[in-house]
């Protein structure tokens, strides 16, 4: 989907020709993927324990990401400028890591016990928001993308929270909350002053 400036921001239109991304994906698989503003696609196929992250071009050709060894990657997200990727790695624990493509360096962003997953970049690329069960239910947290500074807790509660996206101005986080009576509800959280 693309926004067509000639018809205004309120109209979304499909643009371009459809093309096959991968021959290896099955239709019933849950696939973690992210697309940068430049159109680069990164994905992690499901059902693999040790996985390689790859670049995929418009013809579906896969190229391994140089310097990044196979591990149990999941929930990959490309930074807004396409120079880094954040993802969860399931080793003894599940933690959030960031990979810098130019420097070929891996930085661990989360260290607490528990499952940390589903990273989402802030539009300025300075922070990563993720979900964690470190306090019981899956709540949302934010950490500096370079690993410096404390991890800030953004949500609290007994229902599970799943980060979806951050508004382009970086002021609001959209996320799903799993509620017993209504299922998944979409919520908005102001993060401008946090």
In brief:
By secondary structure, the protein is mainly β. The chain has no helices and 17 strands.
Give an overview in words.
It is built from no helices and 17 strands. The chain has a 4-stranded antiparallel β-sheet, with no helix packed on it. Strands 7-8-9-10 form a 4-stranded antiparallel β-sheet, with no helix packed on it. About 3% of the residues have low confidence. The chain is mainly beta and 194 residues long.
Over the alpha carbons, how many angstroms does the gyration radius reach? 17 Å
Low-confidence stretches: 25-30
User: How far is the first residue's CA from the last residue's CA?
Assistant: 31 Å
Strand order of the largest sheet: 3-4-5-6
Please give the number of β-strands: 17
How is the secondary structure organized here?
Layout: E1 2-3, E2 12-13, E3 32-35, E4 41-44, E5 54-56, E6 62-64, E7 73-78, E8 84-90, E9 94-100, E10 105-108, E11 116-121, E12 127-132, E13 139-144, E14 152-153, E15 160-166, E16 172-179, E17 183-190
Antiparallel strand pairs: 1-2, 3-4, 4-5, 5-6, 7-8, 8-9, 9-10, 11-12, 12-13, 13-14, 15-16, 16-17
Which features characterize this protein?
single chain; 194 residues; mainly beta; 4-stranded antiparallel β-sheet; 17 strands; globular
